[in-house]
Amino acid sequence: MSARLWLFLPTYNEVGNLESVVRAVTEPLEHAAPGDWRLLVVDDDSPDGTGELADRLAQELPGVKVLHRPGKDGLGKAYAAGFEYALARGAEMVIVMDADFSHDPEHLPALIAAASDCDLVLGSRYVRGGKIVNWPPLRRLLSRSGSLYARMVLGVGIADLTAGFRCVRRSVLEAVEPRTLEAQGYVFNIELTYRALLAGFRVVEIPICFRDREVGESKLTLSDAFEALMLVPKLRRRARRWRSTAPMTTRPRLDGRGPAEKLESPGPAQPDPSLRAP
Ligand SMILES: Nc1nc2c(ncn2[C@@H]2O[C@H](COP(=O)(O)OP(=O)(O)OP(=O)(O)O)[C@@H](O)[C@H]2O)c(=O)[nH]1
Ligand SMILES: [Mg+2]
Question: By the 8 A CB rule, do 122 and 204 touch?
Fold first, then answer.
């Protein structure tokens, strides 16, 4: 069941969304990597039957796999498990998106194309051309201020640090080792991006249109916001440690454009000719 392009969907109580999302992403995946992709559902024993639905879809659709985890222990842990599963099965590129249509499958070709010459692509709401549809003002304020806070504390040039719609190259995952990340919840996205920047990888934001979910409920809690508030300054204090173990010879610029000078090893991402741009 090895494949080079993987997309995984973390799910908790997404029974009303999962089947449509799965069906909507298979076509762009097949277009990008004919016969060489897998779709993984990482479900934390959702009480609404999402896991059982995922099993039925996996029986019907050959590219679909399911990772059942015994219970909900945070989105960060689900992300780490999904990345690890894909890496162990030959992934060269891993895409992550929410299973609630906030992340539009129509952006997949652009995300995959952008990953052909960089290491981490973020589907960004806060770059020119990006937008948010149907979010209440308070939710917008929280998201925007969370991104600004993390950006200022960490001193990085990324506008949407919490972006959950992303495409990550194998080299980033091998260097950063998602299992070692401290984040339990949503702050995982900030931590992964920061660690990738510190390691000198090229990070690019492409604009997306983010829509509020129409079906199901958000799982974001106040304790997720609190975790982010506390963890971000801690990440900044630890930057020196990650820099020193980073696979590079110069300080990164933290703007996503990779190292300031030539790398000894490993080199920047090489375009993968077998993963077709749209
Ligand atoms: N496996 C797993 N998936 C989770 C967990 N928490 C959330 N998810 C999934 O992660 C994705 C993002 O969660 P959402 O609740 O949509 O969070 P959000 O996008 O920040 O919030 P909304 O804007 O309200 O949708 C969705 O596909 C969820 O089903 C978890 O603890 N475990
Ligand atoms: Mg969502």
Answer: yes
Task: Please name the amino acid found at residue 235.
Answer: L
Using CA atoms, how far residue 273 sits from 10, 33, 117, 121, 204, in Å, is: 28, 10, 11, 18, 19
CA distance 235 to 161: 13
CA of 147 to the centre of ligand 2 (A): 16
Determine the distance separating the centroid of ligand 1 and the alpha carbon of 68, expressed in angstroms: 16
| Pairing mode of beta strands 120-124, 166-169 | antiparallel
Instruction: Name the CA dihedral angle for 100, 101, 107, 108, rounded to a multiple of 10 degrees.
Output: 40
d(C-alpha 67, C-alpha 45), whole Å: 10
> Which residue among 42, 98, 214 is best mutated to probe the pocket of ligand 1, counting the most ligand atoms within 8 A of its Cβ?
98
| Cα–ligand 2 centroid distance for 98 (angstroms) | 6
pLDDT value, residue 240:
76
**Burial of residue 30 (number of CB atoms within 10 Å: 0-12, 13-18, 19+):** middle
pLDDT of residue 250: 45
Short-list 152, 253, 249, CA closest to 198 = 253
CB of 14 within 6 A of ligand 1: the answer is: yes
3-state secondary structure (DSSP) of residue 82: helix
Q: Say what the pLDDT of residue 241 is.
A: 75
Which domains does the chain possess? 5-244 (3.90.550.10)
DSSP one-letter string for 209-260: EEE--SSS-----HHHHHHHHHHHHHHHHTHHHHHHTSS-SS-B-SSSB-BS
pLDDT of residue 275: 57
- Report residues of the chain scoring pLDDT below 70: 244-253, 258-278
Provide the whole-model pTM.
Answer: 0.90
